[in-house]
Structure formats: structure tokens, C-alpha cells
Design a protein that fits this description.
Elements (H helix, E strand, L loop, with lengths): L7 E6 L4 E9 L2 E9 L16 H4 L5
Antiparallel strand pairs: 1-2, 2-3
Length: 62
């Protein structure tokens, strides 16, 4: 959280095939929580030039 200097954290939800992004820590809680699915693009705050889509994480490798 803000006391630990962690501006965001991500949860990769294998069951729902989504990425949950928590940002904007204030008063011990993250004020922004958003879930990304499919081809929605998400970029980490630390490396904004990198884009990730949940669909690429869950592609079948058969």
C-alpha cells in the first residue's frame, strides 16, 4: 500500500481468465480496482510502454 511504496498490484485470475489491477493507494486501501478481460489492454505504471492483454495469457498452447 502507500506505506510500503507499492503504487499498484495485479492479480491474475485463472478461473475468470482476467487481470485485476489495484491502483491509487490511499488510507490503507486501493481506490482504483479494475478487471481486464479478453483483448482489453492494460499497462503497468512502472513500464507503460509494455501492453498486456489477458487473452494472450490464456491462449491454448496445444
Amino acid at each position: 500500500m502507500e506505506r510500503t511504496g507499492i503504487p499498484e498490484y495485479w492479480i491474475v485470475n485463472l478461473v475468470e481468465r482476467s487481470i485485476e489491477v489495484h491502483r491509487d493507494p490511499r488510507d490503507g486501501h486501493y481506490r482504483s480496482v479494475r478487471s481486464y478481460t479478453g483483448d482489453e489492454e492494460v499497462r503497468p505504471l512502472a513500464v507503460p510502454e509494455v501492453a498486456l492483454r489477458p487473452s494472450t495469457l490464456f491462449e491454448s498452447r496445444e
